[in-house]
Batch of 2 targets.
Target 1
Amino acid sequence: MGMSVAANHAKGKFAADAIMAAAARCTEDVKKNGADAVINGTIGSIIDENGDLVVLQIVKDTLKQLTPNQIVAYAPIPGFPEYLDAAIDQCFCDSRPEGYIRAIATPGGSGAIHTAVHNYSEPGDEVLTTDWCWGAYRNIIRDDNRVLREFELLTDDGKFNMKSFSENLQDLVNKQHNTVIILNSPANNPTGFGLNLDEWDAVLSFIKSAVEGKDKNIILVSDVAYLDYSGEKQECRRFFKKFGNLPANILPIVAYTCSKGFTLYGQRMGAMIGITSSEDVADEFTAINKYTARATWSNPTSSAMWTMIEITKDPEKVARLDAERAQYFQMIKERADIFMKEAADCGLKILPYLSGFFITIPMIGSDKVCAALEKEHIYLVPLKKGIRLAVCSVSKKKIAGLAAKVKAAVDAAGIVQ
Ligand SMILES: Cc1ncc(COP(=O)(O)O)c(C=O)c1O
């Protein structure tokens, strides 16, 4: 490295983003050869069957009706109270857990995860998450001078790996005062895996036993970025009920976001929602997270909050919102079903996909396979232990036949999955 004036903790940091890099090569290809010739499976947004970004119609209509004041005026640091109430309601629906529930507006789910890591772990602490996880977790954790610790999400037969989870968690509880866990379920990015209710029971029961009677705390960050496309509205939210009535040294924080559920990605709106049986912990949650909000992004985005408030206060609009989401959930499901069936037919191994924007094809040597596929104008994201396909962004027409092409590239590279 040449000359550097960065502080020690910042020296050498750079975000090598495999997703953005693949997306950039894809854009070049589209310019040269046209969109029809290219398959872009890198994008983490919903793209319709015609190749256009989906903005929910109810969101478009509502955005257009906002007043200049609603768009530009400063919002209160923790967010408009109406927004926070709506976020809590929309997040939990019929499965609101019992206890003190507090929320702070954040710039997307990212802001919620960052703030939870920042305020509930110490510099140098390890933060526990799954080996199959969204790459930005590493940046968030490292940028705050914490260390990422991975446990294995899946067993060999495709179930939640309770053994790996409990061993790693126990180890961290033994050596740290606070342990922050980030669990992205349902619709895990990149696998599409999600915990069932029994698996949630086992996770929470182990968390309880790990800190029972101890002066130790566990903060469970529940990342539900893809919640609204993960199944029937009430059914996919049932696990939230389990976050109620936990001992006061266990704090679930839901990282809620309007990015996907309201297709407001670039508007940067989300919330961190804390659930606790202790009023002190609840008051502290509001105080310290509000403080961090003030110290980082300051005021949350007014326009996005008003869009969300205007929709959710009107039951007729909520019905339209739900219907649109259900339609896109179905579209993504149909794409995933095609890919999974064809993968099974041609012997391409994939990780257990239940719902969500992505399917993962496990392998070592994904770079080589992705490079070969790019020669055929197919753009997927190479990960350390596999390839990520964004079923949210590839049309059914283009998904058809894709599994066989990936399988051929895997075989040609001499890779055994
Ligand atoms: C797993 C996961 N969590 C959280 C997010 C947060 O996104 P945002 O900050 O836009 O809400 C994303 C977005 O890609 C994600 O994939």
Target 2
Amino acid sequence: MTAQYPLLLDLTGRRVVVVGGGRVGTRRAIAAADAGGRVDVIAPDISPELASDQRIRTFRRAYQPGDVAGAWLVHACTGVPDVDDAVCAEAEAARIWYVRAADAAHSSAAVPAVARVDDVTIAVNAGGDPCRARVLRDAVQLALNTGALPLRRHRAHAGRVALVGGGPGDPELITVRGRRLLAEADVVVTDRLGPRALLAELPSGVEVIDVGKARDHHTRTQSEINELLVSLARQGKFVVRLKGGDPFVLGRGGEELAACMAAGVPCEVVPGVTSAIAVPASAGIPVTQRGVARHFTVLSGHDDVDWRSVVGAGGTLVILMGVSRIDQIAKELVAAGLDESTPAAVVENGTLPHQRVTIATVGTIAPRAQAVGVRPPAVLVVGDVVAWRVTTLGDETVTGAAGLRREDRRIGGRGDETVAPLGDETVAALGDEIAARVSPGRLRVGSPVADDGAGEPASDGRPRGRSRQHAEERG
Ligand SMILES: C[S@@+](CC[C@H](N)C(=O)[O-])C[C@H]1O[C@@H](n2cnc3c(N)ncnc32)[C@H](O)[C@@H]1O
């Protein structure tokens, strides 16, 4: 068979005749109407779907010679060979393209399996095997949807920005939409934290601007980043601002969105998996747990915090950017009334292969963190959920959670100020106090909560005497 010639038709306002009102005729008629065609369906039996579609004219009768006159495209879908023959013969004589649903080999045109992803149309024909074509179409659509195929535009287009939450670091923890927008990007403006492994997969020609990495000890201020996003979009680029975690959780995404809006630059926000929840989860620590903690508070370790109200609020306390001030934070918590024996955990590099968990109490977490050399990025979790993790999961193998999926990684162990290396984790300082907090009848719900922050850039974007470690923690 001669190779067919693929073509995309503009049916807008053009007459399309569908002969046959069954399943196939209904599908073809609706697709033609969706494409703007002026559709007439001729059949003794018309499906309810066709009958109720205001865009489509229906004629409840058998085909009659002359029915296809004036059409641009004809679908013969009766399934009755003699009728389909007559319809197609009339169309051929009138030089009208015709598709014979039951016999692709005797058609002058073929309908491919179609899918649309944004402004991309996928049309697959697979040697006249519709099922094979659909399977292939679905595979291509999935690959496009998940960002596995490059979607970048090469013709001039309007500039825009997407603030994409990249998740805590594991490249599989970005959302499907985030991944797809990355595949469309002309420029990626990235933080130091987040799924940096994905940057290596970007097609050549995609510009990557790292605004999280201190180059010559100079980190861009927030206002410089805002200006950069606006200026790139004004050059007609699609800018993906790839941020760690969720853009709006201690991530200054709101400022970037506001800057784009103020400049009239279209900006989309793609939520992300925040490290505040995902990093503890990856270490097997639920931020809420029935009977243990019903709420949690997320804070920045760099901010000024009213520790008394934080401690008074109870629940789990999750502190980001807290490593460099862990000693001070622990002391503030105790001074604000938190029991020194409250369990605490530091999870470094959560969801990444080198994730490490250090567990102690509020009274011992700072020296313990120092002893094992805790480094950013890390999340500090304070509360009984940490004890729950240790006592409940014990020595059982945990699979499924990101970071805990290796069969050989075991969690647990109690002991007196012991460091129990379990796989690549360090579980430390599990004193009797922690065990007592989760013993039946002795569970105390109500740990800390907080918020603070020195060292974050001031609202005008200028750094406020930030130390190098503070800068690192910002990601
Ligand atoms: C500037 S905040 C950004 C938080 C981000 N918007 C989010 O929702 O996760 C950076 C802090 O997030 C925490 N963090 C981010 N990714 C982490 C990871 N993979 N492991 C541990 N902590 C992480 C650290 O506390 C780090 O200092």
